[in-house]
Amino acid sequence: MEPTCLDYARRVAGSAQRMDALIRDLLTYGRLIHLEVAPVPVELDPLVRAIVDEMAPELTQREAVVKLARPLGTVQGNAGMLAQVILNLVSNAVKFVAPGIPPRVMIRSEVRGHHLRLWVEDNGIGIAPAFHARIFGIFERLNREEEYPGTGIGLAIVRKALERMSGQSGVESDAGKGSRFWIELPAA
After folding, report:
1. How far apart are CA 126 and CA 116, in angstroms?
2. 3-class SS shares of the chain: helix, strand, coil, % to 5
3. In whole angstroms, what is the distance from residue 94 CA to residue 85 CA?
4. Residue 139, helix vs strand vs coil
5. Given pLDDT bands bounded at 50, 70 and 90, which one contains residue 176?
6. By CB distance 3.0 to 4.6 Å, which of 63, 66, 125, 165 could disulfide with 102?
7. 170 forms bridges with which residues in the sheet?
């Protein structure tokens, strides 16, 4: 194949992959708005372990280490929504790391009254406090796509899913110092 044609083919393939990811994320977000949520007890240990196992190829490729401080506990929620939320948070923790730095992620929980807070902590690039509220909006990106690919919908999915399950989400972070994302739901 001629070099110019090969270049065009690569561009088309890359654009198609980005469009596919965007459509999948938009569909996920759209489903959250209308999905009927009947909270049930969800054990976090097997759920988080399954997500980490599912991510094994990416974790190996990135030389990432994910540690779980067990037991994580049980919350009232929707297992499918929670799986998507935790997958998004762990994926971001692995993705938003400075070049050449192996990602390190700690997942732990704490009881806060009648609620349980799950933390996903990383050694990534961090987020300046001025942007903490903004990052949970749909299509919000703080970094150029060339540096950190994504659709800008992942954290909006996290926020919407937690709202639908009567929970909350948030972040503690400073630029260059890693991030600590949390989700909080009623304990079961």
Report:
1. 24
2. 45, 25, 30
3. 14
4. coil
5. confident
6. 63
7. 182
**Cα separation of 124 and 105, whole Å?**
9
Tell me, what's the pLDDT at 37?
79
Q: How far are the Cα atoms of 91, 94, 126 from residue 58, in angstroms, in the given order?
A: 9, 9, 21
CATH code: domain 3-186 is 3.30.565.10
Number of helices (H) and strands (E) in the chain: give both, helices first.
5, 7
Structure tokens at 67: 């540690």
Separation between Cα atoms, residue 136 and residue 170, nearest integer Å = 9
Q: How far apart are CA 127 and CA 177, in angstroms?
A: 8
In 3D space, the residue among 119, 135, 118 whose CA is nearest the CA of residue 127 turns out to be 135
Give residue 1's pLDDT band: very low, low, confident or very high (50, 70, 90): low
Mean predicted confidence (pLDDT) in 159-179: 92
Q: What is the mean pLDDT of residues 77-87?
A: 93
Residue 45, both tokens: 């240990």
Torsion of CA 36, 108, 176, 54, to 10 degrees: -60
Which regions of the chain does DSSP assign to beta strands (E)?
40-43, 65-68, 74-77, 104-112, 115-122, 168-173, 179-186
For the chain, give every domain's residue range. Answer: 3-186
Alpha-carbon span 134 to 115, nearest angstrom: 25
